[in-house]
From TrEMBL:
Annotated transmembrane regions: 30-50, 57-79, 105-126, 147-168, 180-200, 221-244, 256-278
Protein name: Adrenocorticotropic hormone receptor
InterPro entries: ACTH_rcpt (IPR001168), GPCR_Rhodpsn (IPR000276), GPCR_Rhodpsn_7TM (IPR017452), Melcrt_ACTH_rcpt (IPR001671)
Organism: Phyllostomus discolor (pale spear-nosed bat)
Assembly and oligomerization: Homodimer. Interacts with corticotropin (ACTH). Interacts with MRAP; this interaction targets MC2R to the plasma membrane. Interacts with MRAP2; competing with MRAP for binding to MC2R and impairing the binding of corticotropin (ACTH).
Membrane topology category: Multi-pass membrane protein
SUPFAM superfamilies according to UniProt: Family A G protein-coupled receptor-like (SSF81321)
UniProt domain G-protein coupled receptors family 1 profile: residue ranges: 41-276
UniProt KW keywords: Cell membrane, Disulfide bond, G-protein coupled receptor, Glycoprotein, Lipoprotein, Membrane, Palmitate, Receptor, Transducer, Transmembrane, Transmembrane helix, Ubl conjugation
Length: 296
């Protein structure tokens, strides 16, 4: 989605001349390295859940969904760098049919990564809510079958939405929908968590021991959500500024940080697995066994 992803390149010369802010340019090697690390880390998360039967539960399946979203974001940048390398070495015709098609596919991966992250965080939030306030009925409410169905619906919807956004990326309504979806879902998650923590605080003595233990999972999601907002919000703001005030010197000044904002998105995929490992003893133990090639 060139209109949304390659915004830095689309700023016109007049707008740049009106701004005194230097344009920050980062080496592509940095993006490539961070993306490789993020891809490998999240792959380890998936393999840990697949190989360890103790982790094959709805909660960890939802975490895997978030890991897949991070992997898609990393894969997008890796493939983009490879595409740029082929173009710069003359093996790929600039602005040809193949490059245009490849750009559309890569842009779909990028949008799919964002949508997958948003909805994965949402379903994890709902899972934590049920875990805390309906602990005794949790296993009858959140079954493996229901979890798989929910994830299938989420990814089908995200895939269709991502393709649609790429096709209609140059239309203002698409940009508005793209940017509004981010805060709307976050508001839903934040409202759910405010209700969760306030209710937990007011009924602290009535909360069962199981629910108190599961509050740790709610804190983990809070950390994941905070990191997600920190890493993605600057890019979403960039999209809004590029759409509605591309020639304003102040907007152009902020947009000069486009590559920094892009690096933050790549860092999100690297940070999330560390949060899983730090907050979940089960995952941490599984990681250790995989890294040191121990048998399960």
């Amino acid at each position: 989605m060139k209109h949304l992803i390659n915004l830095y390149e689309n700023i016109n010369d007049t707008a740049r001349n009106n701004s005194d802010c230097p344009h920050v340019v980062l080496p592509e090697e940095i993006f490539f390295t961070i993306s490789i690390i993020g891809l490998l880390e999240n792959l380890i998360v998936l393999l840990a859940v697949i190989k360890n039967k103790n982790l094959q539960a709805p909660m960890y399946f939802f975490i895997c969904s978030l890991a897949i979203s991070d992997m898609l974001g990393s894969l997008y940048k890796i493939l983009e760098n490879i595409l740029i390398m082929f173009r710069n070495t003359g093996y790929l015709k600039p602005h040809g049919d193949f490059e245009t098609t490849a750009d559309d596919i890569l842009d779909s991966l990028f949008i799919l990564s964002l949508l997958g992250s948003i909805f994965s965080l949402s379903v994890i939030a709902a899972d934590r809510y049920v875990t805390i306030f309906h602990a005794l009925q949790y296993h009858s409410i959140v079954t493996m079958r229901r979890a798989i169905v929910v994830l299938m619906v989420i990814w089908i919807c995200c895939t269709c939405s991502g393709i649609t956004m790429v096709i209609f990326s140059h239309h203002i309504p698409t940009v508005i929908t793209f940017t509004l979806l981010f805060p709307l879902i976050l508001v839903f998650i934040l409202c759910l968590y405010m209700h969760m923590f306030l209710l937990a605080r007011s009924h602290v003595r009535k909360i069962t021991t199981i629910s108190r233990a599961n509050m740790k999972g709610a804190v983990t999601l809070t950390i994941l959500l905070g990191v997600f907002i920190f890493c993605w919000a600057p890019f979403i703001l960039h999209v809004l500024l590029m759409t509605f005030c591309p020639n304003n010197p102040y907007c152009v000044c902020y947009m000069s940080l486009f590559q920094v904002n892009g690096m933050l998105i790549m860092c999100n995929a690297v940070i999330d697995p560390f949060i899983y490992a730090f907050r979940s003893p089960e995952l941490r133990e599984a990681f250790k066994k995989m890294i040191f090639c121990s048998r399960y």
